[in-house]
Write a structure and sequence with these properties.
Blueprint: H1 3-9, H2 13-40, E1 54-61, H3 66-81, E2 86-93, H4 98-109, E3 114-124, H5 126-132, E4 136-139, E5 144-146, H6 160-177, H7 182-192, E6 199-200, E7 203-204, E8 221-223, H8 224-227, E9 230-231, E10 238-239, E11 244-245, H9 249-256, E12 261-264, H10 270-277, H11 281-296, H12 303-321, H13 328-346, H14 352-367, E13 373-374, E14 380-381, H15 388-411, H16 414-427, E15 435-436, E16 451-454, E17 461-466, E18 469-475, E19 485-492, E20 495-500
Parallel strand pairs: 1-2, 1-12, 2-3, 3-4, 3-5, 4-11, 15-18, 18-20
Antiparallel strand pairs: 5-8, 6-7, 9-10, 13-14, 16-17, 16-19, 17-18, 19-20
Helix pairs in contact: 2-12, 2-13, 3-4, 3-10, 4-5, 6-7, 11-12, 11-15, 13-14
Length: about 500
């Protein structure tokens, strides 16, 4: 059967409506994905005007968490895409999650140009690590940086051995960032290790009163003036930590990056939405897939399919807000969904389209949360860690499908599920005393060769009536119209396989 014959020749108005519903659902996916993409698209601003060098300013404000992660990821990716020459992070944070801190530092290292931090006014704890991961650190007049000891989520000290491991790694990490500033590694260490005594050229660093700047048993926190303190004399004199002190970030940009076109990345509100949604994104995916499975197990196209599509679309939107893979995952998933639709509506029983569609759908869903970085030379930066979040999401989604499926089977009334969610809008009220099917496992099914009538259209599933009882069934091949005579051709998993009666 060709598509044109199916849609226009047969004159099946109900079939046309079902196909139109599926096409409408597909359009809604495109629309939802487009909203997510355009909501995150870079705005046209001063950085696009004319040539010249460009500097991007990315905020790191408030507690370090996924919202900061989203903004930094978006800012660095936009800077890479624009071919920016410099990247400045505008820091004002009391600290936060260590894992997120490491991720932000890793993102900053992907930028090949000049990097700097403007402490405006606080870079405390994790903020000190992030600032220390840039090439130069500038300060507002009331800037402060330090107090970077590692603690757990409640603020209590971590296990001593674990702390030593983390401190050792952070010290080594700082050294890799501060090759042009040999003092920085020692200063950052004094901020994280209470037992470390800050020494410069083998001598304990003291203040104007002769007291140690950082004595054993305390953590170092520097003010802007202390960070700009000159160490050494003559040609070897240099500031302790800072590269300069300025009234505000605009003054700093004008002095440190003269003539550069400035692009300031501003939080657009979607990052906040994404932050709150992040914990439930895999759950949305699992529920969406489960509802689509319910839809595939029922005739026609109805509420489960529409809700499932909406939840999967929300999954892609939130992943895009997080700055992960672009629209590739969405397009791959749409292609897979299209092949599944061909299997259901146009070529039921062929299976090749369904199998290919399911595989593409899974690939698209997985790719939708892969953190892909396109570098200035056109290469893609994808590491093993890029796949950790997708794997975690996939595991949570599968767990959601299993748990939600068990709960639905165990607690929802079978008649309510069957009549209201799956079948109510397709064939009207099912007579429960006549219904037999997958849940009626104690009942015998009619033998092969028994004749009956199709109560619904089959594309490829539906309901048949045989000897006064109603059964779930699947068409052996092709489609069966409502009201046609059928004959039992076999059975599978307590489900009848039927074909048109010859």
């Amino acid at each position: 059967m060709v598509v044109a014959d199916f849609l226009f020749t047969r004159g099946n108005a109900e079939a046309k409506i079902q196909v139109m519903k599926s096409l409408l659902a597909t359009f809604l996916i495109f629309l939802a994905g487009a909203i997510g993409i355009f909501a995150q698209a870079p705005s046209q601003n001063s950085a696009d005007a004319g040539g010249g060098k460009k500097v991007f300013v990315v905020p790191v404000q408030g507690e370090i968490n996924s919202a900061n992660l989203y903004i930094v990821r978006r800012g660095v990716k936009e800077a890479l895409a624009a071919g920016a020459d410099a990247l400045v992070i505008d820091v004002n944070t009391p600290g936060g999650d260590l894992e997120t801190t490491f991720t932000i530092i890793e993102m900053l290292q992907k930028f090949p140009g000049a990097t700097a931090a403007f402490v405006n006014p606080d870079a405390i704890s994790a903020g000190a690590y992030i600032s220390g991961a840039t090439q130069k650190i500038y300060f507002a007049p009331n800037g402060k940086i330090g107090a970077a000891a590692v603690v757990n989520s409640t603020g209590a000290d971590v296990d001593k051995t674990m702390k030593q491991k983390i401190d050792s790694y952070l010290i080594a990490l700082t050294k890799t960032f501060s090759k042009e500033d040999p003092l920085r590694a020692n200063v950052i260490r004094a901020m994280m290790d209470s037992e470390y005594v800050l020494k410069i050229n083998g001598e304990i660093l003291t203040d104007e009163n002769g007291d140690p700047v950082k004595a054993a048993g305390s953590l170092l926190t520097l003010t802007a003036d202390e960070a700009m303190r000159e160490i050494g004399s003559g040609d070897s004199a240099r500031p302790l930590l800072g590269a300069g002190k300025f009234g505000d970030i605009d003054e700093m940009l004008a002095a440190a990056f003269p003539g550069f076109v400035v692009e300031k990345i501003e939080p657009n509100g979607y990052e906040r939405i994404g932050q709150f949604a992040a914990p439930i994104v895999p759950v949305l995916l699992g529920l969406g897939v489960l509802l689509l499975f319910f839809e595939l197990k029922s005739p026609g196209f109805g509420a489960p399919g529409i809700i499932g599509i909406a939840l999967i679309a929300a999954y892609f939107i939130f992943q895009h807000i997080a700055g992960l893979a672009g629209c590739e995952g969405l397009l791959i998933s749409l292609l897979g969904a299209g092949l599944i639709a061909v299997e259901i509506f146009l070529m039921p029983g062929f299976f090749v389209f369904a199998i290919a569609g399911v595989l593409l759908l899974l690939v698209g869903l997985f790719w939708g949360s892969v953190d892909v970085w396109q570098m200035p030379d056109g290469s893609l930066d994808i590491t093993w860690s890029s796949f950790l979040v997708p794997l975690e999401n996939l595991f949570i989604a599968i767990a959601t499908i299993v748990v939600a499926g068990i709960l639905a089977y165990k607690f929802l009334p079978a008649k309510w599920v069957r009549d209201r969610i799956i079948l109510g809008s397709k064939i009207g009220v099912i007579e429960s005393e006549k219904f037999r099917g997958a849940r009626s496992r104690s009942d015998s099914l009619p033998p092969v060769g028994t004749e009956g009538t199709a109560l619904t259209e089959f594309r490829p599933m539906g309901i048949v009536e045989i000897n006064g009882a109603q059964y779930e069934a699947s068409a052996e091949s092709g489609s069966i119209e409502k009201g046609e005579k059928i004959v039992v051709a076999g059975m599978r998993d307590f489900e009848l396989i039927v074909k048109k009666s010859s």
